[in-house]
Amino acid sequence: MSVLSEILSTGHVDKELLDALDDAQKQLLFCQMRAEQVRKWQANEERLEREGAPKKSSKKGIKWLTGADGEVWVWVMGDHPLDKSIEEILEEEVTTPVLWNVDVQRRESEIFQNKRARDAEEAMRKMAQKAREQHRQLIRTSTSILPALSDTKATSLREAIKNLPRPPKPKSRAAIVDWFKRDEWPRGTGQDPKTRMPAPWFHGIISRDQAEILLQDKPTGSFLVRVSERIWGYTVSYVVGDGTYKHFLVERIPEGYQFLGTNQVVHDQLFDLVSYHETAPITAKGGEVLKWSVGQIFRPPDYHDIVPEFAVNRLVGRF
Questions:
Q1: Model confidence over 191-207: pLDDT tens digits?
Q2: What does the alpha-carbon distance between residue 114 and residue 93 come to, in Å, rounded to a whole number?
Q3: What's the CATH number for 173-316?
């Protein structure tokens, strides 16, 4: 067999032989190989027309099970001693759904009882938490009320409460500055705990009017926290809407920070108080939630005289 015959028969060309051919010889060889492929295809088509396409064998079929006697095995319901009668089968069909429904009802009852138990446990937990908070409030209030009650001039609890000593007010702005620098800034008040820099909502000793100017045209829920001029503490200035504002006093007590009043939640840090009221309303009636903080817009910032110089310089560098 010649090299050309072998190539046409196998349809394969060695790489060494192909590299030895020039372009014209390669084209001629490819044309001959294509013609041979067409010839083989035509020959195969003619053979299939003469012989017909091969039929595929079907694998599907039925084979009867036979018994020991070689006959088709047959089972008649009820003939075997262990077989159930028709009456028993019908009775089971009736009773099975009933039993299933009873089981479902039992499971639903268990789920309901478990939910009631969890709800009761949650209610007990909240009651215990409320009792602990009331106990703390009572202890804190008793330290002021008991000395007043021991006064012989106080004839009732109402009079005793009226006679309670009021917390001292700051004497001057300089006293507030000294207090904040000495006591508040070192413990992290007004700072973001992550950066140890003034929080976005924190402002210095500014007046009520100045706070409302900063909050002007801001949406409902906008707020800022400023150092109070009236008490040893702070004021949360809040946008109610329609050009109205609310100002909530936050007092600094030995246990932490709380809104001025009774039965208030005490927080360890001022930042915790603000974070808490980002979801919990300040008052149940007003539903005041702290949504958007209003920061500094002037340079230097309004707290430049009460915070360390490095914090002021860092903020000024952002403008």
A1: 999 988 999 999 999 99
A2: 32
A3: 3.30.505.10
